[in-house]
Design brief:
mainly alpha; 2 domains; two-stranded antiparallel ribbon
């Protein structure tokens, strides 16, 4: 029961802050499939191995559930099978547990392709939090600057606006609908700057992006003379390579 409460209400648990963070992110992802595995691991494995396995479940969940949107029935079967082996004493180390989870860990190439094509609609609060989480992690990897994705000092900027008006002739209506929620079209921007931009065209947005505190946001201005469907796809490919180096399990990659 204590483990269940720590996973579902991590903010009131006595766990180490790192473990709380992993549990909070699993909750944000709405992922509970690893719970039987984690219950067994908490009872049977050393603390360090449990911590490593909890982090690994987060990496798998991000690759498989959040980005891959894969069906959970096979994932549940794999988690439960490994949980049984841990409970029965057949698996004694985190490395052995991870080997059992390999079937639900999308490899680097699969994950990179899925990320490069991912669309996340930010019209609901859960998805918006996930996008903020993603871009703060990407920014940390790119610039070594660590930002709290829950901070109210910045927003997610859609370079191609959610309601484009003048200045977006490079996009047909169909392309605008298809591209606005692509990850390659999103970036972090200070709240004040974001508020002032509105639905302005790229030529007006570009100088504001160039002065941003966020390296990945400045790169949009530095690397692009205009903003088109092809430029969104190209940027998302770059972000996908960066993401592959963040959300990974070394033993399985």
């Amino acid at each position: 029961m204590d483990t269940y409460l720590a996973l579902t209400h991590p903010e009131v648990s006595q766990w180490h802050p790192d473990l709380k963070g992993y549990a909070q992110n699993l909750r944000m992802f709405s992922v509970r499939q690893p719970f039987p595995l984690l219950f067994a691991a908490y009872r049977q494995l050393p603390n360090a191995d449990f911590a490593s396995l909890l982090r690994s479940c987060l990496m798998i969940s991000f690759r498989y559930n959040v980005i891959g949107s894969q069906p959970t029935n096979e994932q549940e079967r794999v988690y439960y099978a490994v949980a049984q082996k841990i409970a029965n004493g057949e698996i004694l180390t985190v490395n052995a547990a991870l080997e059992g989870l390999k079937a639900v860990y999308p490899n680097d190439d699969t994950f990179r392709v899925a990320f490069s094509e991912k669309t996340i609609r930010t019209t609901n609060s859960r998805n918006l939090r996930i996008v903020r989480y993603i871009f703060c992690a990407l920014e940390k990897q790119a610039s070594s600057n660590d930002y709290d994705f829950e901070s109210d000092s910045f927003n997610i900027e859609h370079v191609l606006p959610q309601n484009p008006e003048a200045g977006w002739d490079a996009f047909t209506d169909e392309e605008a609908d298809a591209m606005v929620y692509r990850l390659g079209n999103m970036t972090l921007l200070a709240k004040k700057s974001n508020k002032n931009l509105g639905n302005d065209g790229f030529d007006i947005k570009k100088p504001v992006l160039a002065e941003s505190q966020f390296e990945l946001t400045r790169k949009i201005a530095e690397d692009n003379t205009d903003w088109t469907p092809a430029r969104i796809a190209a940027r998302q490919n770059i972000l996908a390579k960066l993401a592959t180096s963040i959300w990974r399990i070394a033993q399985l990659s």
